[in-house]
Design a protein that fits this description.
149 residues; Rossmann fold; 5 helices; 5 strands
Length: 149
């Protein structure tokens, strides 16, 4: 995040694993972000509505596969985000690398994520620095696209 930004970025972190959302939220807050968490697709949709009524949301960081919502549950979160006008969407998944191999499976998962609206990707497991880098990247991409218009 650049020092020229005058406001804290608001991030919604969505993952069905409570421990992951709590740890990631803590670490992102330590990095200077405002963080809201949700642990299901339903909860994410409710948070998005509430956040948009009370201010704004800059980035959604969502797990791709969540119980009980199933494989590609993150697509539902991304759809709700896009329909609410949020276009900085990062999908997280452990399926980007299968059995230590990167290849067709990774391409297929990323293709699904892109089609659902993801503008950034994070492979699980990841560090807070990788999360910050992904957030910064989607924000910079959006800013450079606006400057080129």
């Amino acid at each position: 995040m650049s020092s020229s930004e005058s406001k804290k970025l608001h991030i919604l972190v969505v993952d069905d694993e409570h421990t992951i959302t709590m740890l990631l939220a803590r670490d992102l807050r330590d990095e200077g972000f405002e963080v809201i968490v949700a642990n299901s697709v339903f909860e994410a949709r409710e948070r998005i509505k509430s956040i948009l009524q009370n201010g704004g949301l800059d980035v959604v960081l969502t797990d791709w596969d969540m119980k009980p919502d199933g494989l590609a549950a993150g697509a539902k979160v991304l759809e709700a985000s896009r329909l609410s006008g949020i276009n900085k969407l990062i999908a997280m998944s452990g399926r980007l690398i299968l059995d230590g191999r990167v290849g067709d499976a990774e391409d297929e998962v990323k293709r699904e994520m892109r089609l659902a609206g993801a503008t950034g990707f994070i492979e699980k497991p990841f560090s807070v620095q990788q999360a910050v880098q992904a957030i910064t990247s989607v924000m910079e991409t959006d800013q450079s696209e606006a400057e080129n218009k």
